[in-house]
Design goal:
- There is one protein chain.
- The protein is α/β, with parallel strands linked by helices.
- The chain has 2 domains: 200 residues, 3-Layer(aba) Sandwich (D-Maltodextrin-Binding Protein, domain 2); 93 residues, D-Maltodextrin-Binding Protein, domain 2, CATH 3.40.190.
- Helices cover 48% and strands 17% of the residues.
- It is built from 16 helices and 10 strands.
- The strands form 2 sheets. It has a 5-stranded mixed beta sheet. The chain has a 5-stranded mixed beta sheet with strand order 7-6-8-5-9, sandwiched between helices.
- Strand 6, helix 6 and strand 7 form a beta-alpha-beta unit.
- Helix 2 packs across helix 11, helix 2 packs across helix 12 and helix 5 packs across helix 14.
- The longest helix has 25 residues.
- The protein is globular and about 55 Å long.
Length: 330
């Protein structure tokens, strides 16, 4: 009897798996879009959802916030998320481990971070021996700390990273005296400054190549749903165009999703993000190379960067004239 029940259960699970896969193969259905940061750099995504641009192009989308790129990638590898906005390093790590995550677009090509700390810390080198808050292992915040402090000559064993969660949690960790410094993204840097903390490193000004936010998909899902990927980009780009031409709307949507109503902070967050988001979101090879360089996996040393990204969908959209219709010709 136990064996029979097990066989029935196995068949039921198998049938459910087939039905889920079959539904995916027939059409995109609801597209779950994961994003890894409450950041003004995500404003075009929020605008596209709020204004119905994804629906305009035939997609039913649900936005899901998961702090840290590694969480979004796990969702994509498990087929619960179809499209993700997250740090490119997380996608590279997943693919090095044998996963299917593929980077198909770029949102922000340098670190969108500042490191704030106690007022007594005067320079990046004084972070030696200090405790610094990041979001979680494999997140853009961790890469940012490692990359920025290496630039100033600090080795990873010369400071301690702790993982506390999203940007709000990292500001709170500073306030509560749990850490000496936190890596945070605008507009929270201005919040930290108003709380009396000191900017120690401005990674945006350093312009170190890094895919702070890229667009990624599960490669297998994209093969079955290429039109859905194309239509996602159309909705996203229309959201970007709206944010570019209507700063007031963009600051409102940033305020809604970040739960901030201070106009000065919202304007600062807009200033440091939306104007720098590429209108033609091609993935740059050097971004992938940077992620491979930061990886601790042995196979990263010999990996071919070309295997980690695919610009073909963006090329198709540009060739159709869609991007020029929104932003004009180059």
């Amino acid at each position: 009897m136990k064996t029979k029940r097990s066989a029935i259960l196995f068949c039921a699970i198998t049938m459910l798996t087939i039905l889920v896969y079959h539904g995916s193969a027939l059409g995109a259905g609801k597209v779950h879009v994961g994003y890894s940061a409450i950041s003004a750099a995500v404003a075009p995504l929020w605008a596209a959802q709020e204004k119905g641009f994804f629906k305009k192009y035939g997609l039913e989308t649900e936005l899901i916030y998961l702090a840290g790129g590694s969480r979004v990638v796990m969702g994509m590898e498990g087929d619960s998320i179809q499209v993700g906005l997250f740090n490119v390093g997380a996608a590279v790590e997943a693919r090095l481990a044998g996963g299917n995550t593929l980077v198909t677009g770029s949102v922000y090509d340098v670190y969108y971070f500042q490191i704030f700390g106690k007022p007594t810390i005067q320079s990046p080198k004084e972070l030696k021996g200090k405790v610094i808050a990041a979001s979680r292992a494999g997140a853009a915040s961790e890469y940012g700390i490692r990359d920025a402090l290496a630039h100033y000559g600090l080795k990873e064993n010369e400071y301690k990273m702790v993982y506390v969660g999203g940007t709000d949690a990292r500001v709170q960790a500073l306030q509560q005296g749990l850490v000496d410094a936190s890596i945070i993204s605008p507009p929270n840097g201005l919040i930290a400054q108003k709380l009396g903390f000191k900017e120690i490193v401005n990674l945006m000004q350093m312009k170190l190549p890094f895919g702070y936010i890229g667009v990624g998909v599960n490669e297998s899902w994209m093969r079955q749903n290429r039109d859905a990927v194309r239509n996602f980009f159309k909705g996203y780009l229309e959201g970007l165009a709206l944010c570019r031409r209507d700063r007031e709307y963009a600051t409102r949507v940033i305020g809604k999703f970040s739960r901030i109503d201070d106009r000065e902070i919202l304007l600062e967050s807009y200033r440091t993000s939306v104007p720098y988001i590429p209108e033609r979101p091609y993935v740059k090879k050097e971004i992938i190379e940077a992620a491979l360089r930061l990886s601790k996996r042995e196979n990263a040393r010999s990996a071919d960067p070309e295997k980690f990204y695919d610009n073909s969908v963006v090329k198709e959209i540009e060739a159709s004239g869609f991007i020029a219709s929104l932003f004009g010709k180059k």
